[in-house]
Amino acid sequence: MGTVVAESSPINETYTPRLAFLMGMRDTLPMILGAIPFGILFGALGISAGLSPMAVIGFSLFVFAGSAQFVGAGMVRDLVPTPLIILTTFIVNLRHALYAASLGPYMKDLSQRWLIPLAFWLTDETYAVVIRNYQEGAPHAHWYHLGSSISMYANWNLCTWIGILAGSQFKGLAESGLDFAMVVTFIGIVVPLIVNRPMLVCALVSGLTALLTNPLPNKIGLIIAAVAGIAAGIIVETFQPTVKEKNA
Amino acid sequence: MLTTNELILIFGMFIVTFAARYPLLVMVGRIQLPDSITRALRYVPVAVLTAICATAVFMPKDTLDLRLENAALIGAIASILIAWRTKNLLMTIGGGMLVFLLWRALFGG
Known about the structure:
The structure holds two protein chains of two kinds. By secondary structure, chain A is mostly helical. Chain A is 72% helix and 0% strand. Chain B is built from six helices and no strands. Chain B starts with a helix and ends with a helix. Chains A and B meet through helix 1, helix 2, helix 3, helix 4 and helix 5 of A and helix 1, helix 2, helix 3, helix 4 and helix 5 of B.
């Protein structure tokens, strides 16, 4: 991802796993600052969508995927059937498969003890921070990855609890417009990814389809829009051999 | 306490999210993925995140709103410009939110 603002870490013989872990935490700090309003709002919006406090906590503890949690809570509010919410969650989180495919080659020597938790904790933010560290061939990169993951997870769950409490104290919080933080976060992630014409067409087709299909029930338009955008990107790429070569 | 439906929902969301995160992490590097899958995967973040944003920006109240009073539209344009020029996530979030909140306070969109 082109959104990395992390600084590269000093590498020498005193660079222990413990230090790598702390560096991972430090380099994730900008992402944590961005996630704080997002997490607090999720707590408040989850309650106002009709979820029980335990369910809101459960979302952050077990699903741990900000955008999918927001979309899911919105679908609960609109009384969308559970299987459709789960299907939409899969589509929204499918981008993590891309991050996993990109990280896999660097992690192929790690045991399941590492792979399972690091996979569970994979987010846009941690991916953006750790991929560069792996690419630079830094030692103890999995410890760095663990530091980033744990700090994101702890912060997200803490902010969810704060949001549940704050939402019950300040009734206007859920309608404060702070949910716009999600939109600007996604814009900050998407814009640097639009590096060629197929990506641009993918974004335009996906956005336009989302608007056209918005009246359809159960927010099914989100899935249609995503599939249309992916298909449009591939079609344009296929008919543009120069771009295809550049990306291969 | 949790209702049964909430329990099913959380469990289902956990399973499908883990199913997106775990398999390729383990398989890639051991198994060669078909080229068509890697190509399609590259478009997933842009397609999904744009679809989520488009309705929030152009239809903040569920109907198309292209008026200048639509603070979400102005805030989104501002954050796209900031993201494009700076490629900095924190500046994009901060600047976009600032424009959005100011615009909404001034014009009440």
